[in-house]
TrEMBL record:
Keywords: Leucine-rich repeat, Repeat
SUPFAM superfamilies per the UniProt record, alphabetical: L domain-like (SSF52058)
SMART domains reported for this sequence: LRR_TYP (SM00369)
Domain of life per record: Eukaryota
Protein name: R13L1/DRL21-like LRR repeat region domain-containing protein
Domain R13L1/DRL21-like LRR repeat region: residue ranges: 161-286
The keyword Repeat belongs to this UniProt entry's keyword annotation: yes
Any single biological process term in GO: defense response
Amino acid sequence: MGYGGEFEKLTPLYKLEQLRTLLPTCINFMDPIFPLSKRVLHNILPRLRSLRALSLSHYRIKDLPDDLFIKLKLLRFLDISQTEIKRLPDSICALYNLETLLLSSCADLEELPLQMEKLINLRHLDISNTRLLMMPLHLSRLKSLQVLVGAKFLVGGLRMDDLGEAQNLYGSLSVVELQNVVDSREAVKAKMREKNHVDKLSLEWSESRSADNSQTERDILDELRPHKNIKEVEIIGYRGTTFPNWLADPLFLKLVKLSIDNCKNCYSLPALGQLPFLKFLSIIGMHAITEVTEEFYGSWSSKKPFNCLEKLEFKDMPEWKQWDLLGSGEFPILEKLLIENCPELSLETVPIQLSSLKSFEVIGSPMVGVVFEGMKQIEELRISDCNSVTSFPFSILPTTLKRIRISRCHKWKLEQPVGEMSMFLEELTLENCDCIDDISPELLPRARRLNVVSCHNLSRFLIPTATETLVIGNCKNVEILSVACGGTQMTSLRIDGCLKLKWLPERMQELLPSLKDLHLYGCPEIESFPEGGLPFNLQQLHIYNCKKLVNGRKEWHLQRLPCLTILIIEHDGSDEEIVGGENWELPSSIQGLIINNLKTLSSQHLKRLISLQYLCIEGNVPQIQSMLEQGQFSHLTSLRSLEIMNFPNLQSLPESALPSSLSLLTISNCPNLQSLPPSSLSELHIYDCPLLKPLLEFDKGEYWPNIAQFPIIEIDRECM
């Protein structure tokens, strides 16, 4: 069964009543959730009574027909993982032959049916990553269950006994509300060391207040030691002041990931450096830690500490001041280091002579005294919320860097010229740096992509020659934008929220000959394009809320742009008819056109668009509504997709409204629309059309017979 849920592709299944296996055959990782037609669930699946294996994984399913599984009683394998389902129909309890039920990553699943014990042959149940689902008591009555993945036990009453008796636990296991455990004798009942198939363990205390007896808390955690096969451990909200020794036991040969979170009372860290194969270590919210000492490495051992660690992060440690070093080659393969919200830590003591480090990120911590000389492979540097930084010369940085991001460093200035640097960045981002008032090539390293965002005192911008993609966003005081002498090979330019900018760079045709994409957003003072027009190679032009520019479109000369294929204009409806507006013409090369509230758009403008494949018209504009009602789009013989949005007075569409070439129609927010013309669409999407919706109701609406054979139908985000 292919992903996409198109009814047309699945209709041949009607005839395959002896089909035994129905599984997805492809996965699109770019869009991991796919629509599934309601017609498949209601009309096709119930006919396949011989099915033994069925997967609905990765489909956009919120609910299933109540009686579906009564008709699929022979199922032995059912996969509903990665769906949006909230509850399972009670009819699932009629699947007496079911052996495997997969519900992993159903983030909205809240409960399981109460009569699950009727699944007398269920051997494998996966409920991992179901954050809203607590471990139901009645699952203990599933006598045939051999594998339970992702169990989550809410401690209280007899739950530690239940946990101890559960010998069928696999994969991830969460034990929450551990503050309800009275003493270590109760913790022993969980028999954690016997659960050799659990590879991911989460232990969570919900109350943040201190425990009455820190030693009791330590003893409880000591008895919750997992089996040596454990791969990942997460400890959240532990209330003791010290950790038991097992947390740093070098016999955990499979442990690769450890997270210690919100353990606010602990004043020291165990010797985690002796965990021989630990790759990822996260330490968060340990408010009592003031220093990280030699104990952290296990200095008593001859083994090189953190021998396999690749990623290390410290977050939210307000009292941490000192990080002691051994200088014995610790962190030999560390690639990523994050220090966030550790305001008292002096980075002079940070072990940054890390030859393997590729990414270094500092957020909300002082950046005083940092030396980068030892970072021989560093590729990414991110500095945020470091108000102590006033000057940070690019010339001191390693030339191996590929990406630099500096954000919310309000006192940081661009002062020192970079000189003849060999560094050539893939991307440089400067965000919320209020002391930057001028950007010019001599102050910045070369970068293919340059992003300058929310630098509110920036007034002058000289575009560097090496820049290929430039984004200037929300820099409200930029008044001068120009191109460095000799021009650039820039292919994409986006200007957003520059409220004072009146002019685009001069001589754009000459200085920006490679420009393909131009995006202008919320620049109300730009009045016109530069003299000579836009670069001839321009392929995409997006104009959003640039009132003066749109109202002065007489001199745009867009018809001179032979490569222009995408044009988007979002306006406020203030445009007026242009006398002698022959220069306001659209080139025949346009394939995609989006027009919002441009009331002077006429059928004359559309006549030349012989290549137009996609058209979106939006806004309560009488002229455009009249064009719809009079069927003036029917001559667009190349049109494949049409979107009609926000027409509150539109009541009907005539038969001539849709060109015969149209395959996809989307209508949104047309509250008075109550009829559709007959057509042979492949896709129909209707949103927020309350009078039309009941006419399209599944199997009941007046228009349902007219659309029932469309391969894809979506009504208010429900796939029909």
